[in-house]
Structures are given as C-alpha cells and as structure tokens.
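SAMPLE LOG
Freezer: B-3
Tube label: C17
Construct: single chain, 226 aa
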Amino acid sequence: MEELKQIVERFRQMEVAPYGNLPERTRRLISFAVLTTLGTIQSIPEEVAGALAQGVEPEAIAEAVIQCTPYAGCAKALETLQAVESAMQAQGIALPLKSRTTVSADTRFAQGLAAQHAIFGQEPIDRQREAAPPELRHIQDYLSAYCFGDFYTREAIDLKTRELLTFCILCALGGCEPQLRGHIGGNLHVGNDRQTLLSAVTWCVPYIGFPRALNAISCVNEIAKE
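STRUCTURE (predicted):
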C-alpha cells in the first residue's frame, strides 16, 4: 500500500503538477469533480484539508461536487457532498454553507437556456431543440431547465470554470466522446483554450488512468486543433 502511494504521489508531484497553465484553485476543484464522478470518496477528507489550506473557498469546493450531478448522477454527488461537509466540519467550517442558487421554479428554464447559448452559441442550441422529435423534446427541456438552469447558473464558480469542470467530468466518465466533443467546443467558446484543456486532462491522468485520458486528448486534438 505505502509503496503504491509513493509511486503515485511521485508521479503527481514530480511529473504531472509541473505541467500546464492551471491555477492551483482550478486543479483542486477538478480533483473534487473527478473524485465525485468516479465515486471515490475515501480521500475526500485529505482533499478538503489540502484545498482549504491553499485558500480554496468552502463554497467553491461544494459547487465542484454539485456540478457533477447532471453528468455523474445525483447519488454520487450527494454521497460525495456528505463526505465533503463532514470533512469541512472537522476543519471547523460552519455549516450549512450559504445557498448559491440564483434561479426559481419560474426562471430556471429561461436562465438555463441563456447559459446554453452563452456556452455553445444560440444557433446550435436552437437548432438542436427544433430538430428534436416530439417524443424527445422533454429531454431538451430537461437539459435547459435542470442541467443548465439548476446548475450552471449557481454562484461561487464562474461559467468558464464550470465548463472546464464538465469537460473533466466527461473525461472521467469515459464513453461520452460525442458529449466530450461538444463540451470541448463549449470550453473554447467561453475562453478555455487548447492548452487549458490539455492541462486539465493531464491533471486528471492519475485519477482516471491513461485510456480515458488518451481518448479525451484525441477529442481535444480533433476539435481544438493547433
């Protein structure tokens, strides 16, 4: 056990960490998003302590976990958030944290659609909605109101960072290459360039392994050409 930990930690600190252009805060938030997606919560207390020591806000840590909900599913998000809150309490953080929601039942659809337009452009989203067959239009509505309305509009993490987290969530899930390509385009649209995406994938390698990381890099090379 200790030998394996040493191998992984050496790889993370000596090879992975020096690469790329990501701020420490962003790296920490990516770690929480990926751990949530993988359903690996044993290291959450250590991750929380480390992130807080680096000045990452408790609300941002929680939001990185919450952002996983429409992609990795509610069970993983709820389980990880519980572990995060327990770890925060152990660190002396007062709970509950302030709510970061900005939408209501009446505004979530419109604000979610606006977020989709901001990330992907108005024409592609409107075309996608119009092309949906009648029996699948509810899915388009769910995407706008739930995925983007309930989550992308939340505070504590800006839209650019949320979209980068989503990219990492999809990298960790694997088998989501069509959605991954779409969100690579979304990342480019909101200002996360090719180097940022490659830096994010590189940070994910110790967590997700090489096959999923290489698949993600292939998608980046396809959509975010040099």
